[in-house]
Amino acid sequence: MQVAVLGGGSFGTAIASIAADNGADVRQWLRDEALVEQINREHRNGRYLPDYSINPAVVASTDLAETVTEAAVVFIAIPSKAFRTVLQQVRPYLRPEQILVSTTKGIEADGFKLMSQVIEEETGSSHIGALSGPNLAAEIAQKHLTATVIASDDPVTRAYVQAALGCSYFRVYAGNDRYGAELGGSLKNIYAIAAGMAAALGMGENTRSMLMTRALAEMSRFAVALGANPMTFLGLSGVGDLIVTCSSELSRNYRVGYALGQGHDLESAIEVLGQVAEGVNTVKLVCEKARREDIYMPLAQGLYQVMFGGVPAKDMAKALMESEQSSDVEFMLSREAVSRAHELAPDSE
Ligand SMILES: NC(=O)C1=CN([C@@H]2O[C@H](COP(=O)(O)OP(=O)(O)OC[C@H]3O[C@@H](n4cnc5c(N)ncnc54)[C@H](O)[C@@H]3O)[C@@H](O)[C@H]2O)C=CC1
Ligand SMILES: O=C(CO)COP(=O)(O)O
């Protein structure tokens, strides 16, 4: 099979190498000539995954047409801010039968679009998928056993991606809720920033567990309000990705949160990272959307206040802990029922 990967960052590089390990003929597109030369000569991406030996069958190029022309599957691993621009550049070289898969866990500001929706708008293709799951590129590089989801309502897309990437260290599960899988992948980045911040402030595992579980409740509430299926969040692309990103120092979003918790400002935290941390933008877009649609998201709103409103993280944590009592699993006991019942309790003041 011929596979194309657009993007020369850590995830694009990992995906290209998995497909090559799996026997595919792989082309990878990136803009940086020097990096193209390094990948082709040394089979190494010194900028994004310096310690990783890339399968020599991966051929890098700065030529978009050459990269995609023969490909059966095209993976797009470009940060959300540049995703549409790159798609517009590649569109003239695409064919209708090609499978187009986003690996990007971000949201486009204009219209709150997920990346596979951007692919749909730009190409009108009927073979679109989203790849999402607990997939830290640096761990894939070490061939740690990893699983992901190819989410698509198109069976051809699911089958091709499972065939292209499924191998002894990378297992590809199928899902048909593309929107839910992508939404989970994007939302979890918000809570990974909060988890990094909590860790830097010296909070423990009880705190992390509370944060992850309440994050799942908040993500589900958001999904339901948007008409999406919260059941998808029980899979690898939801809770799976939430766990890894909220727990690992390899996550860029976690690292941004950690730096903020140590007292660095946002600008310097991003600069030191030198890679994309989609959650920084996602928290803004999600909070805006939640405000407009009146969706209760105290964690995301609290994080927003810390990141952009100058509220100290410790003060925000205290305010959240002392906020209105709430329900554990809202699908079983609604929040409203809990707050109504408070009238029955004795006054503790
Ligand atoms: N790194 C990881 O562990 C994982 C990343 N992802 C997702 O993959 C997406 C891409 O991430 P990474 O590869 O990790 O990012 P990265 O920060 O490592 O690299 C981004 C790449 O995109 C390129 N790029 C940026 N703007 C561009 C433009 N206008 N035209 C062409 N190329 C451009 C950069 O030069 C760089 O090669 C992100 O949205 C992320 O959420 C998903 C799963 C795991
Ligand atoms: O999505 C990821 C792991 O599944 C990568 O997370 P970061 O973008 O925070 O590094």
Q: What ligands are attached or bound here?
A: 1,4-dihydronicotinamide adenine dinucleotide, 1,3-dihydroxyacetonephosphate
Range of strand content: 5-15%
| DSSP strand count | 10
Q: How many structural domains does the protein architecture include?
A: 2
Distance between the termini: 69 Å
Order of helices and strands: EHEHEHEHEEEHEHEHEHHHHHHHHH
Instruction: State Rg.
Output: 21 Å
* Name of the top-level CATH class of the largest domain: Alpha Beta
Strand order across the biggest sheet? 3-2-1-4-5-8-9-10
**Largest sheet entry:** 8 strands, mixed
Can you give the mean pLDDT?
A: 96
Binding site for NADPH: 10-11, 31, 48, 105, 137, 252, 276, 278
Protein name: Glycerol-3-phosphate dehydrogenase [NAD(P)+]
InterPro entries: 6-PGluconate_DH-like_C_sf (IPR008927), 6PGD_dom2 (IPR013328), G3P_DH_NAD-dep (IPR006168), G3P_DH_NAD-dep_C (IPR006109), G3P_DH_NAD-dep_N (IPR011128), NAD(P)-bd_dom_sf (IPR036291)
Domain Glycerol-3-phosphate dehydrogenase NAD-dependent N-terminal: 2-154
